[in-house]
Structures are given as C-alpha cells and as structure tokens.
C-alpha cells in the first residue's frame, strides 16, 4: 500500500495518522490485528512527514522509537497492550511464517480512548476511512479485532458502507453488542465479502490482558489455528 505525506498529515498541530505497521512486507501479510486507535501520538513538531513515513514503514525502527519515547516520559519500556500485541503477533508469525498487519479502526492516535471520543468528528471519520482503505487493499484473509469497541465500530462501518457480510456461528445484527467474552467464544463471527477476497473476522478480548504467554487466550488461539 502506497503511503504519502497527504495520507498521514492533518495539520501542524495534530498528530500524524498511523494507517498501520507491519513486521514484514505489507503485501505478504495474511492476518490483520485490529485495535481501537494508536496510543502514541507523533506530531509534525517531533519529526518531518517524510521521516514519519519511513518510521512507520520500518517495524523495528518504529518499536525502537516507541520504547525511546516511553523512556523519555519515564514510563516502562512497553505498555501492557504493546506487550500483548507483540506476543500475539510473534505467535501468529511463527505459526504462519508470514507478517501481521497491526491496524486500528481509527488511525488517529490519542493517549486515551476518552481523548479519541473528544476529537473532531471529521478527523475521526477520516481516520476510519483510512483504516478501511488498509482493510480493503491488504491481502489479509483473517482479521482479529481485540476489544468490544474495535469490533462494534468496525461492524457499524460495514453497515454504513453496505458491505456484504455473512454471520457465522449464530451471529446476527442483534449480537454485535454482546459481551466480548461471548463474541470470542462464538468466533469466527463474520465473513466479509470484498472484491477479490473474503475476510474471516474474529473478535477477542483486549490484548492488554494477553501477557507474555497468552495462556488465557488459548481457546481463541486454537480456533485461529484451524483457519490458518
């Protein structure tokens, strides 16, 4: 997927959008891991747009920047969420031998979800449109949404865009507000029909609860293995 300055730049005072990061070639990834929104805003005052594009295009370089930024803020090297994402992504990559795209339903970074809700609706919508472009243009045929909000906002986006989908394992529109634990047990819950590919959708708990081993996620990981 081609990224340009215009893709990520909003204004001098706003953080850059983060469409995705990927631990390998975007084109080779067959799995997409999707959260709510990125938690580390990076501003034009921090780095130029061209440098930012290079940063998010180089997974290892991005992680180094992330760790360094947290150290400068006197925080632990990685957050619980980043630790969970890294552990889950490593598990998938080892199992499949392919990269994983890490994306978010809203590509607009904020330190908290509360700040995301307070952001300008035009910006939120633009950031969600950018996510959908990533979703469509990727070669991923499995999408894993971690957290109820990430899945629900994605499902609402599907309906707004009139994207064809098929409910699986008893899922229908009345189920989308169910607890994430129930949706995780039902997964896969959707097959999304896009031009040239179908995407199997799983929902699971937020990866801040994953830890290093992901022991409590073993049931959903076993389900994922079947479809990988």
How is this structure best described in words?
The protein has 228 residues and is α/β, with parallel strands linked by helices. The chain has one domain (5-227): Uracil-DNA Glycosylase, subunit E, CATH 3.40.470. The chain is 42% helix and 14% strand. The protein is built from nine helices and seven strands. The protein has helices spanning 5-8, 49-56, 59-72, 80-96, 113-118, 121-137, 148-160, 180-186, 218-227; strands at residues 21-22, 31-35, 100-104, 142-146, 165-167, 190-194, 197-204. Strands 1-3-2-4-7-6-5 form a seven-stranded mixed beta sheet, with helices on both faces. The longest helix has 17 residues, at 80-96. The two termini are 23 Å apart.
Short description:
The protein has 228 residues and is of the alpha/beta class.
Query: Which percent bin holds the helix content?
Result: 40-55%
Shape: globular
Low-confidence stretches: none
Main sheet summary: 7 strands, mixed
Radius of gyration over C-alpha positions, nearest whole angstrom: 17 Å
Strand content: 5-15%
Mean pLDDT over the residues: 95
The CATH architecture is: 3-Layer(aba) Sandwich
* Continuous helix count: 9
**Domains counted in the coordinates: how many?**
1
Give me the count of strands.
Answer: 7
């Amino acid at each position: 997927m081609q990224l340009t300055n215009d893709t990520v730049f909003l204004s001098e005072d706003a953080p850059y959008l983060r469409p995705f990061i990927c631990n390998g070639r975007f084109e080779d990834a067959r799995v997409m891991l999707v959260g709510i929104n990125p938690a580390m805003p990076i501003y034009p005052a921090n780095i130029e747009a061209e440098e930012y594009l290079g940063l998010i295009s180089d997974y290892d370089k991005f992680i180094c920047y992330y760790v360094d930024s947290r150290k400068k803020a006197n925080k632990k090297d990685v957050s619980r969420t980043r630790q969970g994402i890294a552990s889950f992504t490593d598990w998938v990559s080892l199992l499949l031998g392919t990269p994983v795209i890490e994306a978010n339903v809203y590509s607009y970074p904020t330190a908290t979800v509360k700040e995301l809700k307070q952001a300008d609706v035009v910006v939120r919508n633009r950031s969600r449109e950018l996510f959908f472009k990533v979703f469509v243009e990727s070669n991923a045929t499995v999408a894993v949404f971690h957290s109820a909000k990430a899945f629900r906002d994605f499902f609402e986006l599907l309906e707004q865009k009139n994207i064809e989908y098929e409910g699986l394992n008893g899922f229908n529109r009345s189920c989308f507000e169910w607890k994430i634990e129930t949706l995780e047990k039902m997964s896969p819950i959707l097959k999304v029909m896009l031009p040239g590919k179908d995407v199997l959708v799983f929902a699971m708990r937020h990866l801040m609860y994953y830890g290093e081993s992901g022991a409590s996620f073993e049931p959903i990981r076993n389900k994922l293995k079947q479809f990988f």
